[in-house]
């Protein structure tokens, strides 16, 4: 990436190199840069995943409560909920693959 940037835009490469040397020159600047990277770049990706995982956990607890109220064991309900979640996510993945194949 650096070589391509150097070849196509040497001025931009120089400014990026200067900024990165400033960031890695001091510990506080590096910490700030890592914080910005984590909170501004990775958080929009990781937050929806965390919400989805929390949703699946809540749904599995609901299923476990329904099974235990019906007289079954909670472990059976947990296995059933996980199996259902895996099959739903694999169906979603298959649909996404099929949609891409149609393009």
Tell me about this structure.
With 103 residues, the protein is mainly α. It contains four helices and no strands. It is elongated. The relative contact order is 0.05.
Query: What summary fits the major beta sheet?
Result: none
* Alpha plus pi helix count: 4
**Helicity level:** over 70%
Strand proportion: under 5%
Distance between termini? 29 Å
Q: What is the H/E string? A: HHHH
Outline type: elongated
* Radius of gyration over C-alpha positions, nearest whole angstrom: 24 Å
Q: Taking all residues together, what is the mean pLDDT?
A: 75
Total number of strands: 0
By helix and strand content, what is the structural category? mainly alpha
Quaternary structure annotation = single chain
Unreliable segments of 5+ consecutive residues: none
